[in-house]
Amino acid sequence: MRMAEGGMASEEYRTFLQQPSGNMDDSGFFSIQVISNALRVWGLELILFNSREYQSLMINPINEKAFICNYKEHWFTIRKLGQQWFNLNSLLTGPELISDTYLALFLAQLQQEGYSIFVIRGNLPECEAEQILGIMRVQQQQRPRLIGEEEAQTSAGRSAALAQTEMGFGVEDEVVDEDEELKRALALSRQDIDVEDEEADLRRAIQLSMQGAVMSNKSSESEMGNVKSGSAAGGQREGQNETLTAEELRKRRQAYFDRQQQQAQPNIPQQPETKSTGGSGSVNTDAEDQQQKPSQ
Asked: What is Dmax (Cα atoms) for the chain?
């Protein structure tokens, strides 16, 4: 309407309509000039917080009534309601309580982040919230979050849970693969062990058979030696038996001859010496005959 005051047919007005406005847009953004003119309607004035004019006054921020902050076409208000300060940022899920000691630090933090801060000077219009908070103080148990932060955290949590689930499945698959590989390795090692056991058993069987053959040869040789030694000993024993038997027979024959001779001596008549001398030949012949009979 201000631009149309110069004439709607003017070239400036037509240029203004063709070009986007630097004072407002469809998102609700207004320039500092628009806000300053709007506040003048209520008798309020904007002063730059970090200007020399305001810093020279050395006013404690808690003694002010409100601040307007701007950063990249976004405005929000810090206002004192009753005896407490609140951050009325529309990007939050609700008003944020700010303590008196934290207010100066919060403003300094905003300046470091690049915000432009303006002090509102004048009497603010009355509102119901200020009347209620003038009677009672509030205590905030939980600070509000940024709009979309919960959804972002929820989506992040879901994505993280999904990633963990996928990782869990991947880990389970890897574990299953490792288990299968371990089982295959154990099976192969068992097969190798079985083959080695079979080869070892075969070797032991061959060795035992060879030892058995050697032992059998040795035993057969020893048995043959024993037979030979037994036969030799038997022959010696038989020879000894035969020798002993001949000796016994000889002794027995000698004893029998001695007995016969003793029995024959008393039956021989005593002859005179003259006859005995002449008949000695016959007597000797009889004795010789008696001796020859046993020997025969």
From this structure: 224
